[in-house]
Amino acid sequence: MKAIQLQHPGGLDHLRLVELPSPGAPKAGEIQVRVHASSLNYHDLGVVTGHARAEDGRIPMADGAGVVTAVGPDVTEFAVGDNVVSCFFPHWQAGRAVPSTFQTVPGDGVDGFARERVNMPVQAFTAAPKGYSHEEAATLTTAGLTAWRALVVDGRIQAGDTVLVLGTGGVSIFALQMAKSMGARVIATTSSDAKQARLLALGADQVVNYKDQPEWGDVVLAATGGRGVDIVVEVGGPGTLPQSIRACAAGGHIALIGVLTGFAGSIPTVEMMRKQQTLRGLIVGSREHQQDMVRALENFRWRPVIDSSYPLEQMAEAFAHQKTAKHFGKICLRY
């Protein structure tokens, strides 16, 4: 089978297309999946560029979607022919005991889905939403579930809430689509007129250009009559967090997801304390969260936004496109 391996010291020029033996019959409690798609996340970019210091020869990609081709003894949850999608934390089934490392994450601590076939335990997958293509399903494992947890699990979104999303990456677009489906008002930020038009077409109620208005937190406050937003999907990190705190309502929730602007910085703690906001870091979600999300997605009329799709052999080109930050939605691999 075809696979991509990352050679030390990492970097897009150290991704190697290789031929590996196909896995044999799945063991008890396992399923075999013919993987047809993956999607790119900034976590994956950190792995392939060497920042995550993955083992030499690591097969990258945390997201995988495909078809069950064989089931091991005692497997009853899935059958041959079922469409499935992987779990980011395959050992976090449910509950509050959250993982704090990436040791079990496919494509980082263990081999991922940049290969044509895998044998894994049943618990490493959920059903894909009915009617989704493999590429659409592959966008859910990381970006889709992160947005779901930020809004539903941690943010406890209600109809009538106002949500702020930053930029046009996968998590932000998912959050926009989900929030609108749940009856919320959505304010989005971007630096591009073209992307502004697409955000409005997707249902954003207002778009703020953060380059033209660097104090965009005050703009969001004004747009909400001085109240602020109920939930901020904060993907920027230290460079955007002060503005997110400014934009967030008293008693509001900030879901801290990304580190796009760095790994450390100053925080206006007095303003956050005065407004009694909650700031909660999160990394994707559990298998139970994903099962809940899949059920919900089957009742929504929209589909994930896919910016572009590349064959597996062009993984380096796909990541080079991601690094430009010109994409809108998700970038996928197909194979």
UniProtKB/TrEMBL annotation:
It comes from the Bacteria. One of its GO terms (molecular function) is oxidoreductase activity. SUPFAM superfamilies: GroES-like, NAD(P)-binding Rossmann-fold domains. Residues 10-333 form the Enoyl reductase (ER) domain. Signal peptide: none annotated. SMART domains: PKS_ER. This is NAD(P)-dependent alcohol dehydrogenase.
